[in-house]
Design brief:
By secondary structure, the protein is of the alpha/beta class. Helix content is 53%, strand content 11%. It has 19 helices and eight strands. The chain has an eight-stranded mixed sheet with strand order 1-2-4-3-5-6-7-8, sandwiched between helices. α15 packs antiparallel against α16, α15 crosses α17 and α16 crosses α18.
């Protein structure tokens, strides 16, 4: 099991992705664990090495018997990164994780490349509210606060449905150790960064949600965005756990911020790099060799805008973009382009099952004749790629052929 001894506690963590990529650390809310970042991780791994961990007192991390502080929890993050040989990282924290992120921005700015503060606050309400919650959990365990927490974590619309994320979080809350939960309640009770926010000099994104009753924009996100120099903000139609209620929108905002293109990102070099990644070196080399004074501007156009501008947008992964291109080419009958993108896709992200579903969708919305031609082309490409045996005539086919003869 991946445990690290950090700051006098055993922390559970998951480090995923390619070692050479920049590191992004994700920090969860009170009463949950690292698994709540599950919807975002697959797409993040295309761009980052992702480190998730269970906050002290939560999940599989050790429950130490004392009141915690945000300083203690922030130091846990630094020691965990040290133990894994990670010097610099981007940090995204939600709620309690956002308080930890603020502490890191104030005390370890040299370690941070970017900071995302989601559904969080520089001061989490009145001290008496936390004292009441601590008393409830001390006397009645997690069952005493689970309903209240769920109504804050998710909007009524989500709770009224059979939402898998909400059901999972309900179980996480009930399974959280009361001692660890109380320790983190004390950390949030005592936290107040209002007088020091202007000292955060790390590029920062503040994410708020319009149905968040725990840390609404007014008095929370607006203070963070207003006082942290040059902070950007994003507001989502969600409750407190916005990354679970609006997982794709949260991911899109996160990637847009973390992967903001520098000036010059639309240069031909950037487009050629993406074009090579999608279509292969041989194809691009042939296109370059065929460039002349007549078609040079056209080649520059598609390189800059198709490849450097659209294909590099992180909001859709490459697999999805490939399928969209294939469906569009089939619908329009652009069979040369269809075959080219199909061949390249099969060499990379696409599998036969992806093609089947895309072409069935195409049959319904673009017509059976288009899908019929596309299925024939796809069958040939699958056979050539060794991904499917050549079609063999069935006994019925043989019988029909004999009758025709």
């Amino acid at each position: 099991m991946p445990f690290a001894h950090c700051n006098n506690a055993q922390l559970f963590y998951r480090l995923e992705g390619v070692r050479e990529k920049p590191v992004l650390i994700l920090s969860h809310s009170i009463g949950t664990d690292h698994a709540t970042w599950g919807p975002q991780v697959p797409d993040l791994l295309s761009h980052f090495q992702v480190l998730r961990y269970d906050t002290r007192g939560h999940g599989a991390s050790e429950v130490t018997k004392s009141e915690y502080s945000i300083e203690l929890l922030g130091t846990d993050v630094l020691r965990l990164a040290d133990s894994l040989g990670i010097r610099n990282f981007a940090f995204c924290g939600l709620s309690l994780g956002g308080a930890i992120g603020q502490w890191l921005g104030l005390n370890a700015a040299d370690r941070l490349t970017s900071l995302v503060l989601a559904n969080t606050s520089p001061k989490f309400g009145e001290r008496s509210n936390w004292e009441t919650r601590i008393k409830m959990v001390s006397e009645g365990g997690m069952a005493a606060v689970v309903d209240m927490a769920m109504q804050r974590f998710f909007s009524p619309q989500t709770l009224a449905t059979s939402n898998a994320y909400a059901s999972t979080v309900n179980l996480l809350l009930l399974g959280t150790d009361p001692v660890g939960y109380i320790g983190c309640c004390a950390a949030l009770r005592d936290f107040d960064s209002r007088e020091t926010l202007r000292n955060i000099r790390v590029p920062t994104l503040v994410i708020s949600a319009d149905r968040d009753v725990s840390t609404p924009w007014a008095g929370n996100g607006e203070i963070l965005a207003g006082q942290i120099p040059n902070a950007r903000s994003l507001q989502l139609p969600a409750a407190h756990l916005s990354n679970l209620e609006r997982p794709r929108s949260f991911l899109a905002g996160l990637l847009e911020f973390l992967l903001a293109k520098p000036d010059g990102a639309q240069r031909p070099e950037a487009g050629f790099a993406m074009r090579r990644a999608i279509l292969g070196d041989d194809y691009v080399d042939r296109a370059i060799a065929a460039t002349n004074e007549f078609n040079r501007e056209f080649q520059d156009l598609i390189t800059r805008y198709a490849w450097a501008t659209i294909w590099t947008r992180p909001q859709l992964d490459v697999r999805t973009r490939r399928l969209l291109v294939l469906a569009t080419m089939a619908a329009l009958g652009r069979w040369e382009e269809f075959a080219m993108h199909l061949r390249s896709g099969l060499q990379h992200e696409l599998e036969p099952c992806d093609l089947k579903e895309m072409l069935l969708q195409t049959a319904i919305y673009a017509g059976v004749p288009a899908a019929n031609t596309a299925f024939h082309i796809a069958q040939k490409e699958l056979e050539d790629a060794g991904l499917q045996p050549a079609l063999q005539p069935t006994p019925r086919d043989k019988e029909m052929n004999e009758m025709k003869a």
